[in-house]
Amino acid sequence: MTDDDFREPEYLGPGQPAPRTGWSTGRWAAVGGASVAVLAATGVGAWAVLQLMSTGAAPSAAVPAAAIGYVSVDLDPSASQKINALRTLKKFPAADDLGMGAQDDVLRTLVEQAQDDSTCPDLDYDRDVAPWLGNRFALAVVENRGELVPFGVVQVTDRAAARTGIAALAACGDAAPAPRGAKAPATTPGPAVSFVDDYALVGEDPLVMDMMAAQAEVSSLEDDPEFTSWMAEVGDPGIITAYASAEAPQAASRAMGEAGAGVVAPRLDALYADFTGAAMTVRFGDGTVEAETASGGLPGFLGAPGGESGTVDLASLPETTAFALGVAVPSGWASSYADTMSQALGDDVTPETMWRGAEKATGLSLPEDLDTLLGEGVTFSVDSSLDVSTLDTPRGLSAAPAGLRISGDPEAISRVVEKLRTSLRREVGPDVDRLIVTRDDDGVVLGLSRDYLDILVADGGAGDLDGLESFERVLPEADKASAAVFVNFDAGQGWLDSVLEGADADREVASNLAVLDAVGISSWVEDETAHGLMMLTTD
Question: What is the reported pTM?
Answer without folding.
Answer: 0.81
